[in-house]
Amino acid sequence: MDSSCHRKIQLNEILFSTMQVLRCKAKHFEQALQHCKYRIRFPTTFAQASDDLYSPKHVLLYFCPCCMIRVEQDLFLSGEWRPPTGSPVFRHEVKYKSSSLQVLYETQRAGVISYAKCPLFTPYNARIFHQHPEMNESVRFNTELGLYERLLSEDLPADILQLKFYTGQVHLPMINTQRLYAKPAFYEYIDAKTNPQEIWSTLSSETRNDILYAREKAEINNHPELRRLTSFLCKNSYYTRNRLHEDQLIQALSQSAIHGKVRMYTVSYDGQICSASVMIRSGSVWYYWLNHTDKDHNIRGAHLLLLWQCVQEALHDQCRFSFDGSSVPTIAKVFKSLGSTTEIIPVIMACRRPWIKKIIHWL
Length: 363
What we know:
Number of strands: 14
């Protein structure tokens, strides 16, 4: 029997064992678990779940004991995509009742003020894990408020700690206290259940014609040579200004930890790359991660063609596609041209002292 067949049998046995557990009444729950051939573990903290999910040695299924909801892998909060030579990142976790708040951050200084912020090229750095996610809105609100109060009761890792939350997760309103300052942020996405044909039929004729023109005149490559791709991406002044260099990017994209979680594309015209994109997957979301278009050597519709390719592949994988977000009208217009939906998320600043919050608010 070959390895692929053996693995399919293993997975079928896992699913069968899991269904046995699901069918059990509550009083027989522990007894059923003892008969499962494969390990089904129940993490007590988000960190425990995150650490074990990345282990290549096991096939692990994680569920909340009450509602049996699977805990998805989180590439960004693990920090696994980051190259070894990148700036160091740190983790901070607080717990309240059966919930936990985990934050990943890197530190900077601005004069006498220290700042722990969302790492560069990371769409979010904070996530709340509820062990009982079926709780009602009132209980969830009080629990999340308790997590904030617990966070402020501890010694913060910096004068200001930025919490940019995983999309659509926080149920607190835009909360402001003496030491908490909240401001809205947003991102654009296409839902996993969307049919690509429906998107295509609703695109404006201008957008469709641009994509078709680029598809006819240019060449799209979904397996580009890595050195050539990174060299092109690092022409983007935003990346170099924020200390992402070519060798560092090669290290990041070559890591075995993110194998299968990154897809890279280039569009070439007259033998030269004119546009390139990299998308990265965390959990059930594909993120439009890195991109660059050469304004001096470009072809009409090249950037739209890459975006459309990324959207189709994400939906084929039954994943949400996230464009992140932009307040630049010309960029936001491109996202909207492909039918994106806007979601508002909070970015919260936790301050070590009340006077620091006043400075932030004034700025």
